[in-house]
Design a protein that fits this description.
Blueprint lengths: L7 E6 L8 H10 L3 E6 L9 H8 L20 H7 L2 E7 L1 H9 L5 H8 L4 E5 L3 H5 L1 H12 L3 E2 L3 E4 L5 E5 L3 H15 L6 E6 L4 E2 L5 E2 L6 H12 L3 E6 L11 E5 L3 H12 L4 E4 L6 E3 L18 E3 L3 H8 L4 E8 L3 H11 L4 E6 L11 E2 L1 E5 L4 E3 L3 E2 H16 L2
Parallel strand pairs: 1-2, 1-3, 3-4, 4-5, 8-11, 8-13, 11-12, 13-16, 16-17
Antiparallel strand pairs: 6-7, 9-10, 14-15, 17-19, 18-21, 19-20
Helix pairs in contact: 1-2, 1-8, 3-5, 4-7, 9-13
């Protein structure tokens, strides 16, 4: 999973010989995690078939305002297509289509969709050398860029005419890479490193038994995904959990015990910009760990415990400009306990949730949180999905670190 994962991408195909490359482009975008729909100019169907692109995209391909072959014609709504898209990629973009885009000419479904789209628009020119260098084409480039459209530069190479020069559409894999890099470069956490702890810790009693808790790790994993989707390089230190994540910007560092999590956090903390400690770390561990399974010899069993190292407090003591966030799961005197923890552990922000709130806490897909900052600012949220809570948290951090 990467920056394009989950994105709705509308691919506009125009009538150039480079249209044959769009089959590979659709596959590349889907491989990057995007959901792709295709809209074509009518003439583009002479270069690549709608059947090919619809088979690869797993969506109907649209090229006219109605399905002409259907007796019960249904309107292909260009407004809906434009609103559906997170990104609109026009490739190949011919000189003819770009001139129409630049001047508001709207004589086909693709152009109507372009004029309706509210999302970022990328265009990848493709034409012969002399057309590419013509002043009218250069004017189209500049006008489209002035609208905020993003040009994916053509490359030099052998052209359909037999000439060698500029005007060849960028290769599909390069188009995907260009879009990913462009999006990443504009994300608010680009260049930032974020440390996140998630899940429970297991403190061994013997080779079979352990002390643990009911944390699923869902909250921490959602924070990791949200951070990566905002451009950060993430170091996710996770205790034992069934949660999975695959993202090019997330480094997963599995641990088992509080001691292992402490060591891993301290190994990476120095190079971090932000640290969000959402793991439910055991406060106590057995003082002695049996090397063999403890046999049942009586009706009672005593276990001597000792404190585990306090990861959050230890990072608070050594932080040098890192923005440090902790979590407080409380059952009584929630606000007061959270405020004391914020101050005692030298945090920049604390996320309070209460087991008294229905839908909050361990294992579920929802959470109800309150943010408390060092200026005693309190922001309370209603019950939300953990993915939404993660985004709220990252937005709050961005607001505070960019103030």
């Amino acid at each position: 999973m990467g920056i394009l994962s989950g994105k709705h991408i509308l691919l506009g195909v125009t009538a150039g010989i480079a249209a044959y490359k769009t089959a590979s482009l659709v596959r590349g975008l889907i491989k990057a995690g995007a959901d792709v729909k295709v809209v074509m100019t009518p003439a583009a169907k002479d270069f690549v078939t709608p059947l090919t692109l619809s088979t690869l995209s797993k969506h109907p391909v649209h090229s006219s305002f109605t399905n002409e072959e259907d007796d019960n014609a249904v309107w292909n709504n260009h407004v809906e297509l434009g609103l559906w898209a997170d990104l609109f990629v026009i490739a190949p973009a011919t000189a003819n289509t770009m001139a129409k885009m630049a001047n508001g000419v709207c004589d086909n479904l693709l152009l109507a969709t372009y004029l309706s789209a509210k999302c970022p628009v990328y265009f990848a020119p493709a034409m012969d050398l002399d057309m590419y260098k013509h002043e009218s084409t250069k004017a189209s480039f500049e006008k489209l860029k002035s609208f905020g459209n993003i040009m994916i530069p053509a490359t030099c190479g052998e052209l359909a005419s037999g000439l060698v020069g500029e005007g060849r559409m960028a290769e599909p894999e390069d188009i995907v890479s260009f879009i990913e890099a462009d999006i990443l470069d504009k994300l608010p956490l680009k260049g930032k490193k974020v440390l996140i702890t998630a899940g429970p810790t297991y403190e061994a009693i013997d080779p079979v038994r352990f002390i643990g808790n009911h944390s699923s790790g869902k909250m921490g994993f959602e924070i990791a995904k949200a951070s990566a989707n905002l451009g950060a390089e993430v170091f996710l230190i996770t205790g034992p959990t069934h949660q999975k994540v695959s993202h090019s910007l997330i480094n997963v560092l599995p641990v088992t015990s509080a001691s292992e999590m402490y060591d891993e956090a301290h190994e990476h903390f120095d190079e971090m910009d932000i640290a969000i400690l959402s793991a439910a770390v055991a406060d106590f561990k057995p003082k002695e760990v049996a090397s063999q399974k403890i046999k049942k010899k009586s009706d009672t069993f005593s276990l001597e415990l000792e404190r585990t190292k306090d990861i959050l407090a230890s990072l608070g003591e050594i932080k040098k400009g890192q923005f440090l966030v902790g979590f407080a799961l409380e059952t009584n005197n929630e606000l007061e306990n959270a405020k004391q923890k914020l101050k005692r552990k030298n945090l920049d922000l604390i996320v309070l949730n209460s087991l008294n709130d229905k839908g909050a806490g361990f294992k579920g897909d929802t959470n109800k949180v309150t943010f408390i900052d060092t200026k005693n600012g309190i922001t309370e949220f209603q019950l939300k999905s953990k993915a939404e809570v993660a985004l709220d948290l990252l937005n709050e951090i961005i607001k505070q670190t960019h103030a």
